[in-house]
């Protein structure tokens, strides 16, 4: 008995409930689409910080005096954001080839494949087409799928794109930081260099995300902050991931929820 | 005269039909952007829907950072409570709250829900970071706000949006994030006592008593901070009690939560429906039991 010739079967990363909800919305899955990017981050990136603020001497000890500064490490951020953007474009190109309206349930994985000077981004999701609607020029993408996507539409938004933004702040410890963060200044003084490094990383990432939005809103934000120390410098990195959505109709208050007690185990 | 927008679920706000939502998604492909205000939110969609039900919507992810120095030597040489650490903690928390409130003010929001609190206590500095989503009142075309409560000062609450909605429906509202903190030295046992007790299962009363002392101070402080915030209670208290990682003879006791106050005449009991899920996992026949 010969094996039947393969027909075009769809593959997808949807769970069964999401699959059912997508079908009910008229979203037909076409295939599991993926985008990869592996790259090298310049070994110079970590040292390419440029100052945005300097901290004057606070210790008044001339022998020790060393000016500290707060800076941004844009090279490092550019490497990762470009990696994400490239992987996203590759995933959307696959979706376009399938004739998709959009990609739902997008998952993002980001790693260092070898060492800290390498980056790997893997995006995957399910390409879907809206029945009876010609696909747009560029497919939309979202982390949501199924019922969650339906809820997004219910509150008046439609998906635009998945988004990733980050900002790395670098603080070169001078005597100001040494003075305030070594306890010599006493209790209750604001350690400005460290505080402002945390503020710069977070506000820089949020501003970068707003820059991506082009009038859209960023929902479902996950914020990750990582602090590390190298060569008497502190690096604070803040990354944001989420889904850009645009408002398609005015939102009106929804019904008050019904409180329930689950009697299941 | 323009017709007022109706929810996709209809005027009675019944559950929306998925086919209607699919059609709305298709129609929106070519629709112009209605609102140029950029919003960022770390809330889930369920939480956003719940906030809509009380007339609120997310405005912006906001944060506040406070980093305050601690005098050198306080961990090693102090006896009893380490007041410098407590002072630094509150100074850092107040600074973070001040910073987050200034961001809330800039965005025109009413307050922040789902605040996450991170405390990093180091030997010479205490850093407090608070992050959450600022929420604003939704308004209709005539600029009438759907949210009725007026706040003079932006509220901060570490309750989830779901808890916020349940609380509000019962007549209670959050006011502020408040905390009590205490750092207390556990007195060391004498060498003779330590050696004598080495082979016994005994209670380390010095540590137990220190924990009680730390708790007394922190909880007392929490009470006064709730009153200062104008609250009549505190919900969802989070307690951190542990030895400091860099000074094992100092016990840290930090408690924080959301100060709340009832704004209606009396507490409203929510009507709760009981749900019995019928989708329990089926216990299947186990062939190995035949052995």
Give the gist of this structure.
The complex is a heterodimer of chains A (265) and B (291). By secondary structure, chain A is of the alpha+beta class. Chain A is 27% helix and 37% strand.
CATH architecture of chain B: 2-Layer Sandwich
Structural class of chain B: alpha+beta
The largest β sheet of chain A comes out as:
5 strands, antiparallel
Count of spatially separate domains of chain B: 1
- Rg of chain B over CA atoms, rounded to whole Å, is 26 Å
Strand segment count of chain A: 10
- Chain oligomer state: heterodimer
Q: Main sheet of chain A: which strands, in order across?
A: 2-3-7-9-8
**H/E element string of chain B?**
HHEHHEEEHEHHEEE
Number of helices of chain B: 7
CATH superfamily of chain A: Hypothetical protein apc22750. Chain B
Give the uncertain stretches of chain A in residue-range form: none
Kindly report the greatest chain-chain contact and the residue count on each side. Answer: A-B, 74 and 84 residues
User: Structural class, judged by helices and strands of chain A?
Assistant: alpha+beta
The average pLDDT score of chain A comes to 86
CATH H level, superfamily name of chain B? Hypothetical protein apc22750. Chain B
Give short descriptive properties of this protein.
heterodimer; A: 265 residues; alpha+beta; Translation Initiation Factor IF3; elongated; B: 291 residues; 4-stranded mixed sheet; 7 helices
Helix and strand arrangement:
The complex is a heterodimer of chains A (265) and B (291).
Chain A (H helix, E strand, L loop, with lengths): L15 H9 L2 E14 L9 E6 L12 E5 L1 H24 L4 E10 L6 E13 L9 E2 L4 H9 L2 E16 L2 H7 L10 H22 L3 E14 L2 E15 L11 E4 L3
Parallel strand pairs in A: 4-6
Antiparallel strand pairs in A: 1-5, 2-3, 3-7, 4-5, 7-9, 8-9
Helix pairs in contact in A: 1-3
Chain B lengths: L17 H10 L17 H9 L2 E14 L4 H4 L5 H25 L3 E11 L3 E13 L17 E2 L4 H9 L2 E14 L5 H6 L8 H24 L4 E12 L2 E16 L9 E4 L16
Parallel strand pairs in B: 2-4
Antiparallel strand pairs in B: 1-3, 2-3, 5-7, 6-7
Helix pairs in contact in B: 2-5
């Amino acid at each position: 008995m010969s094996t039947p010739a393969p027909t075009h079967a769809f593959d997808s990363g949807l769970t069964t409930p999401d699959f059912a909800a997508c079908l009910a919305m008229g979203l037909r899955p076409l295939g599991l689409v993926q985008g990869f990017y592996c790259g090298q981050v310049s070994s110079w990136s970590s040292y390419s910080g440029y100052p945005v603020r300097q901290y004057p001497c606070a210790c008044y000890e001339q022998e020790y005096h060393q000016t500290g500064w707060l800076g941004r490490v844009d090279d490092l951020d550019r490497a990762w954001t470009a990696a994400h953007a490239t992987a996203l474009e590759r995933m959307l190109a696959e979706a376009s080839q399938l004739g998709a309206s959009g990609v739902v349930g997008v998952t993002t994985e980001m790693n260092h494949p070898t060492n800290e000077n390498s980056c790997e981004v893997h995006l995957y999701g399910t390409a879907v087409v809206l029945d009876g609607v010609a696909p747009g020029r560029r497919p939309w993408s979202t982390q949501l799928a199924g019922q969650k996507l339906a809820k997004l539409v219910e509150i008046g938004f439609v998906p635009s794109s998945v988004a990733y933004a980050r900002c790395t702040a670098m603080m070169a410890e001078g005597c100001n930081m040494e003075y305030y963060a070594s306890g010599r200044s006493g209790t209750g003084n604001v350690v400005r260099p460290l505080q402002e490094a945390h503020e710069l990383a977070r506000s820089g990432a949020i501003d970068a995300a707003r820059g991506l939005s082009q009038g859209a809103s960023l929902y479902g934000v996950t914020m990750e902050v990582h602090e590390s120390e190298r060569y008497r410098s502190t690096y604070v990195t803040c990354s944001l991931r989420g889904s850009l959505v645009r408002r398609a109709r005015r939102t009106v208050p929804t019904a008050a929820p019904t409180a329930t007690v689950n009697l299941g185990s | 005269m323009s017709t007022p927008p109706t929810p996709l679920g209809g005027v009675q706000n019944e559950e929306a039909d998925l086919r209607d939502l699919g059609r709305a998604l298709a129609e929106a492909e070519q629709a112009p952007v209605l609102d140029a205000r950029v919003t960022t939110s770390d809330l889930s969609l369920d939480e956003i829907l719940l906030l809509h039900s009380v007339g609120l919507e997310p405005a912006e992810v906001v944060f506040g950072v406070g980093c305050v120095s601690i005098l050198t030597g306080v961990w090693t040489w102090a006896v009893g409570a380490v007041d410098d650490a407590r002072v630094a903690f509150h100074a850092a928390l107040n600074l973070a709250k001040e910073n987050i409130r200034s961001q809330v003010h800039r965005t025109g929001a009413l307050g922040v829900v789902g605040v996450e609190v991170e405390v990093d206590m180091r030997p010479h500095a205490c850093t407090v970071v608070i992050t959450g989503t600022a929420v604003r009142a939704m308004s209709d075309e005539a600029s009438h706000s759907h949210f009725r409560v007026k706040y003079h000062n932006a509220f901060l609450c570490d309750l989830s949006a779901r808890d916020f909605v349940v609380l509000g429906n019962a007549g209670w509202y959050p006011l502020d994030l408040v905390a009590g903190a205490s750092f207390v030295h556990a007195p060391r046992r004498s060498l003779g006592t330590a050696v004598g007790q080495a082979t016994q299962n005994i209670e380390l009363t010095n540590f137990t008593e220190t924990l009680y002392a730390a708790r007394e101070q922190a909880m007392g402080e929490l009470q006064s901070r709730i009153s200062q915030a104008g609250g009549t209670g505190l919900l969802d208290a989070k307690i951190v009690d542990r030895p400091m990682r860099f000074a094992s003879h100092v016990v840290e006791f930090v408690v924080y939560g959301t100060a709340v106050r009832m704004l209606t005449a009396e507490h409203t009991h929510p009507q709760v429906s009981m749900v019995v899920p019928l989708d329990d996992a089926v216990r299947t026949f186990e062939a190995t039991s035949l052995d």
